[in-house]
Amino acid sequence: MDPSRRSEGKPALDPERWEALCSRLAPALDARAAFDELEAAHAESHRAYHNAEHIVECLQRFDEVAGLAQDPDEVEFALWLHDAIYKSRGGDSEAESAAWAVRLLREGRAPEPTIRRVESMILATKHSAEPPFPDAALMVDIDLSILGRDPARFDRYEQDVRREYRWVPGPLFRSKRKEMLVAFLARPHLYATEFFRERYEGQARENLARSIASL
């Protein structure tokens, strides 16, 4: 991608960080080519929330909790790839993103157990079931940390999600969005790990309740 596209005042993906990660986890991978592919995907015009800023914010949260991970490199790789594919008009974005991660790791000659764990972590971001192991729980919490951000950032997130679904008529969007947020709020815990519960749970519940009331 043209480097000038990284100078628009928006958070940008860090190629050096990516290449260092790949050198540890998938050393045979052409990391620069893979980075260019990922950067282009996250710059797709239909993405308002699931873009480079989201990945940058996830990596910032990851840096705060990397010491809690059993394998930090696997968690970080999964974060980089978990929204490599994003479609608001159907399809299985998580499964396709997981397949992309598997392809890159196989090209990089990563061990098969690593490949399977990364795949499972990305699939866990469907948020439809309990994460299957501790690193997956940590990754899911990072992905959901946006729910517990300050009200201004959360509101911008909600606006960006609406932009990604601007093709959905207003009444239908509000109905489906409310249904999803109510289901989240009904959970005993929004976050699986103690760190995220302590830091984000209270604010997340306030944000969700306020959003539901506005729909």
TrEMBL record:
SUPFAM superfamilies for this protein: HD-domain/PDEase-like
InterPro entries hit by this protein: HD_phosphohydro
PANTHER family, sorted: HD PHOSPHOHYDROLASE FAMILY PROTEIN-RELATED (PTHR21174:SF0), PTHR21174
Identification of the protein by name: N-methyl-D-aspartate receptor NMDAR2C subunit
